[in-house]
Amino acid sequence: MPVAARLDDVLKRDPRSLNVQRSADKRSVGTCRDYALMLCSFLRCKGVSARVRCGFAAYFSDGWEDHWVCEYWDSGAGAWRLCDPQIDHMLRQRSQISFDPANVPREFFMSAGQAWLECRQAKADPALFGHGNVTGLWFVKINVLRDHYVLNGRKTSSWDRWRDAPPPKRVIIHGELELLDALATTPAQSLVESAPDW
Q1: pLDDT tens digits for 83-113?
Q2: CA distance to 16, 56, 57, 141, 168, per residue, from 61 (Å)
Q3: Which intervals hold domain Transglutaminase-like (predicted)?
Q4: Which of 39, 46, 167, 193 gives 70 a disulfide partner, CB atoms 3.0 to 4.6 angstroms apart?
Q5: CA distance 97 to 6
Q6: Percent of the residues in the chain that have a pLDDT greater than 90, as a whole number
Q7: Closest Cα to residue 41, out of 67, 4, 78, 80?
Q8: N-terminal to C-terminal alpha carbon distance within the chain
């Protein structure tokens, strides 16, 4: 859902100012990407360089869960920082998150490209990366492509329908490895169109 439509939904449920905390029944329902995109939009409106990133978080479960965050430029430090705007008081308690959500340590969030390269170099187990019972190198591939697309201004893509892929199609073709290695290493390179293989 576009940010403008999301804001309309929030205000339709509760017309008070956006800086007023809402009860759960008055909130708009969204995914991690919705939270990241909303924050990214707010930061850009304030003149802060920001972008949405696709990867995997280690603070929700034992493995690396499919997740989206916002990455913003900290001009004082001269570095990109990760922010997870989905982390609220309830999620912080449930998942025992002790770090500042506005500065997520890099050891707790791995970009899709980092995850791909770690798996390819046998530094990480691909079975630990994914969503629910769909895990493995194929899922890491999906996030490599989604991160590449979003860094090229594609907020959504046909790769977002990964759940539609039947299990026999959830494989990596040997001929894809070189391209995926390149996209993982330099995800912001010029857009490479890639149609889903299902």
Answers
A1: 999 999 889 999 999 999 999 999 999 999 9
A2: 35, 11, 9, 21, 27
A3: 15-85
A4: 39
A5: 27
A6: 81
A7: 4
A8: 24
Distance CA 84, CA 101 (A): 5
Residue pLDDT, tens place only, 153-185: 987 778 889 999 999 999 999 899 999 999 999
Question: How deeply is 82 buried, as exposed, middle or buried, from its count of CB atoms within 10 A (0-12, 13-18, 19+)?
Answer: buried
Q: What DSSP state is assigned to residue 29?
A: P
H or E element at residue 107 = none
Prediction pTM value = 0.93
Residue 73 has pLDDT above 90, yes or no: yes
Alpha helices (runs of H) in 1-111, residue ranges in sequence order: 3-13, 32-45, 89-94
Q: How many CA atoms lie within 13 A of 93 on its CB side?
A: 2
